[in-house]
Batch of 2 targets.
Target 1
Amino acid sequence: MTPGAIAIRALIIGFIISLAVITGFAYTTLLERKVLARLQHRVGPNRAGYIPIPWRGGEKRLLGGFMQPAADAVKLFMKEDPTPAKVDRVTYNIAPMLAVIPAILILAVIPWAPAFRLGPWRFTPYFAVAPGINVGVLFILAVTSISVYGVILAGWASNSKYAVLGGIRASAQMISYELALGIIVLIPIMMANSMNLGDIVEAQRPVWFIFIQPLAAIVFFIAALAELQRAPFDLLEAEQELSAGFNVEYAGMRFGMFFMAEYMKMISLSAIFSTFFLGGYGGPFVDRLPWLGFIYIILKIIFCLVLMIWIRASLPRLRYDQLMGFGWKGLLPIAVLNFIITAVLIVMAEEGTLAPLLDTVRQFFIG
Amino acid sequence: MIHPIPFLLLAAVAVAAALGMLLSHNAVHSALYLVLNFITVAIFYLALNAPFIAMVQVTVYAGAIVVLFLFVIMLLGAERLRSPVDEVRGPERFHRYTAILLALVLVGVAAYLLFQGGVDMTGVDTTAGATLDASPQALGLALFQSYVFPFQVTGVLLLAAIAGVVIFGHTKKRGEDNA
């Protein structure tokens, strides 16, 4: 294929995946409301859209509330969207876009399915918007580090004290937790001996990395929660302290775009977690039926999303100094230690000194 | 190598962003122009077949360093340039003229070298097959085998800078001397 054809194909796939993620975002909000409601012994949204069952006399309804995201979207679009008087107009307008764009960009490198053929197109070595990027992990880190701008600029441009405080909290928190995230990401790279996400997925074919490196997986998940600013790390939108944080001056769909960014980042970080630690698109029979890869990774993403929602329903919010202390004194040393031990063990295994050592330990204990 | 038309477009964006950074009266806008400039330079690295450097450029410069700039600007509330009515006193008066003078010297030396043939342009092999191996593996091997001493020295220098910041930033609390 010529570079032009590759570019056009990437554009088409990227468009389809972006639309899919926008739909996914809408239904993630519904998932969150429903799961939260169930965890709090409520029913949740059940009015907008349902499938009646005629033979039960319309009493019993299926899928109550499945049109709720559409109703929310209509409401947000119809709302008045005033711009406050003394805002920095350009920055105020581009801030919501800067929040949403990185959230979608991350999905460019996620492998969705192994290689397969669809009509004239062959997707090798795996199906992604941009397959075969040999620095895919670094791309993810670069894009996550860019994504702080939306929040920090929204806070500053609003020209409001609460919003500025929210923005500053956000930037401090994201910088602190990016370190732990960046170091933990090295562990799957070392285990797979590649920065290519496809290679990382293939390396997990025998056993998922979460079973070899459970501590790394937990640290990654916590750091991802902090990076997302979800509960229990949602300090920047602590209502009782900051009214609503960085988005307090926004309304209408521009307000909705910050939520769009948050839920899309939930999806993309869940996809990254699945790829790094849960085997990505891997699963039974995926070699013969590559289409199963989509189903496996989407199931894994939904699992991670439900876990995040469950954590939000269970844990209270941290205090600000606890948050910083936890990031710098807790997660970062654990990540560095885990990294060093993994590196030493990998070098020992490569040089063949690990097996004799294990034998010695076994003989010492068993006799 | 990169095709001339996209190169010129990107170069125009990079230069415009750099000028915007210099001329903007608002420090936050300057920082944003700087981010745009860094990202354009990262795209140049990508086009020159160095994806690792490109991604590190975005992560470190556009991601971490400018966010720290913004952080400081927002905390100090220093985003507005002083109005020209205010009299600038002290050594700050000469900053602008010194900067212009130094920039002229830089441009002059660069132009002299370029036009007098002081820079050896023929030695760079720009054919497609001869591109440097800029993969992460090659870079890591170079850093930790060929250039391990300069690498370590750089690390110690950065550590010294961090220690300096901690010492300068540490203000003694009242009564701490007696304790």
Target 2
Amino acid sequence: MNTPTAGQSGRPEAETYELRLRGHLDSRWAARLAVPDLTRESDGTTTLVAVGLDQAALHGLLQRIRDLGLTLISVSRAPAASDDASK
Amino acid sequence: MSGSLIATKLFVPKLRAGVIDRGRLNERLQRGGTARLTLVSAPAGFGKTTAVVAWLQSRPPAGAVAWLSLDGTDNQPTVFWAHVIAAFQDAVARVGAPPLDIPEPSEQPDNVVPGAIVNALAALPGSLELVLDDYHVIEQPEVHSGVTFLLEHLPPNIHVVMTTRADPPLPLARLRAQRELVEIRAADLRFTADEITAYLNDVTGLGLSAADVAALGDRTEGWIAALQLAALSMEGREDVAGFIAEFAGTDRYVFDYLVEEVLQRQPETVREFLLETCFLDRLSGPLCDAVTGRSGSRETLDVLYRANLFLVPLDERCEWYRYHHLFADVLETQLDAAARDRLRALRRRASDWYEVRGERTEAVRHALAAEDFERAAELIELAIFGMQRMRQELTIRTWMGTLPDAAVRRRPVLGIGLAGVLASVGEFEGLEERLREVERGFAAITAAGDTMPEGIAVADLAQLPRVPGLVELYRAALSQVRGDMAAGVRHAERVLELASTDDHLARAAAASLLGIAYWSEGKLELARARWTEGRDGLMRAGHVADTLGASIALGDINLALGRLREAAHIFEYALEVSAAQRSPVLRGTADIHTGLALVLREQNDLEAARRHLLASAELGEGARLPQNPYRWRVADALLRQDEGDLDGARAVIETAVRMYAADMFPNVRPVAATRARILVAQGRLDEAARWRRDAGVGPDDAPSFMREYEHITLARLLLAEDLKGGGGTGARALPLLRRLLEAAQVGRRNGSIIELSILLALASRPAGIEEALKHLARALSLAAPEGYVRTFVDEGPSMEALLKAVVKRQIDAEYANRLLAAFGPAQPKPRMHPELIEALSERELDVLRLLGSDLGGPEIARELAISENTMRTHTKNIYEKLGVNSRRAAVSRAEELQLMTRRKA
């Protein structure tokens, strides 16, 4: 099910987050994790950019990552510019 | 929830063939048995559950095992505890022990259930393991706090094991420091090189080279779920080395890669079956047939199980299975866009299947997941009233988080059910808007006549006629919460007009709200009538525990009305109602004992009052409303005062002040004022004067019922200050007392009239006895039929003198004589001689009293008409029981224990 978590910018306190995961993920996983897109990096990791997440939505995403057995390497708040770029 | 689904959650999983022995983990887990909690905390697919099951099977048979596989529905405390209790009962039944005496959680407040469980477990003879599998699904803080309580109060014979993907918000650091926590984490669960070799070569018989094993170990990092998939992918493959090389060479997420590999190697039918059923939390042949639209699912499940395709049996008969959670989650990721669309249709079928079988919670869950909100709304509407009765409000609120508001708006019956849920959990924000919407929907239905109007739907037609009454009921509650009593009364009265005569619950709730409103305004007769209706209606609606709350209100109101006997009768009846219930003791029973103690104390039956206070205390937390702790202490303080324990009375009333807990009832007797009264009675006028400043009461205030008790307290203080030292005239309190009396007479509050008349008698005494006796005669005539004693006797010698004058003038001599007999030394209370190993018999007490006189032994024997031998035996027994060896010591010890003053029975 495509959970309407991400992609709802305009929420108060919404931020854009960048998450790095161990391993390369197929593009199908973007829908599963409800993020607009993902990038496979040359170092064997995958970067997700999640847009318009407040804290509760971020934790929901982290929980899905946990439940899918994925290894989380880093989470960071993306610079505001990337927020605009992704719209 | 049906029995079958609960049973699958309580099933202790069995190890399947092909699990390697991991002695090092068994040892760690066995050591954990001495701590309170063993936490198996690691990501998905690390073999947490298997490790626990393997340990349970490897150890020598010892004690019972209560197993609970948690899922999202356990986030409602009522549901969680019901399942925990079911797991315990299941466990004790398996070892042949009698069922534990634990109350039904839906009939108890959530916070007392863990305490009841602890008490019941303490009685368990053997040891017991409670396994909470997948604890990470628990998110509700209420559940966590209950589990924390359980862990902190666990009897030593009980041990808890949790498996979880995330460390739970429990006091782990504290448990760790106390060495009450054993942890098994990802690093411990990862398969070592030896274990991988054992698994791949010995168990699956793949016969891999050391290098291949090492490569797989590196790539999977000892992650058993991945190793298991890798083994499946290699089974029957010719070029195993090639597979390993390719697998090791890819950067792809291990599990995703392997699931895809495994899927590709399955026959078409199996692959389809897996993808079409991966969303189901539990699978059975019939359910899968319904979802896939094909027959033969039962056989397919058998095939999958035998093929080791991550299927976990949930019962002995292999009727229900579930997929390994991680496997199912990654399978779902394999679905493409078209398949995901199709998934919605499959979920709808699952919802239908459960609905037909009466499994409404499951039906709702699948309908919500299918995003079939119309259907979900319909199902919730059909379930909501029953779930409210079972106190599952949190589950409903979770559903509402997913259900779009539009689906609720077109359903007035669902809307009113939801309003009830919100009101019962104290969420009043947005309630008024919701009620208006429900009203609009209902009006549209009425206007449309026989057809359902466009855009409106009703599934539970039986509830439709209740809607207008319930709208007004929740408005009444909302008004009271906002402090608008007048509006509360208006709406509650509308409920009684609108609700049908057999809607007992709505009518009773409205009557109780009216009862509260009238009570607050001092219209006690009206309040009494409404509360009686409320209590009886609640009884008819089957809400027996709630009738106790109504009885407490009724008792208090009758006391204010000066109807001591009716108050006693109400409390006694409530105790009968409570006693007629099967265990557990109804919540509120302790409060009823406290209320009855206060009545008995007023009637000067101090021993019976003390007995009821003890009964109240012994019933335990589950039988108490939140107000009982302070109310009990108020009663205890007053009783101690009567018993002559002045310091004790002061200490206890201080605690009562601190423990005050507000409820919906008007706070007509603030504890601080009762404290001030005790201080005045003990002559501590300076301390009492501080209360006066804090309470902000003055002698010129206009009388109001809500402040009447405080004003009378102030009058007592003024009177005491005035008469202090014997020089005053009492006149300072008179104007206030007169005004208060007038107000009490207008409100026909006999309880207040009696007390005020007594104070007026005392205050007017210095000016002349005639006026004093006039007031006292009024008090006596109202108090005599009800058996008041303490209100008179507590006033001490000046009242005693006035009563003697009453007797002399033959005004109400009989009653006055009875009151006069109650003056004098306080009766001993049973608790005063706890040091006494064995109570003295009546006869021994007789002997003891005469030992205190100046009579010699033979004279005492003659006095009691007993032989000198018998007399000596009694004396010997008395000495033994009192732990003394002389007559003088016996008498002084008896005086200490207040045994000398006891009246003959």
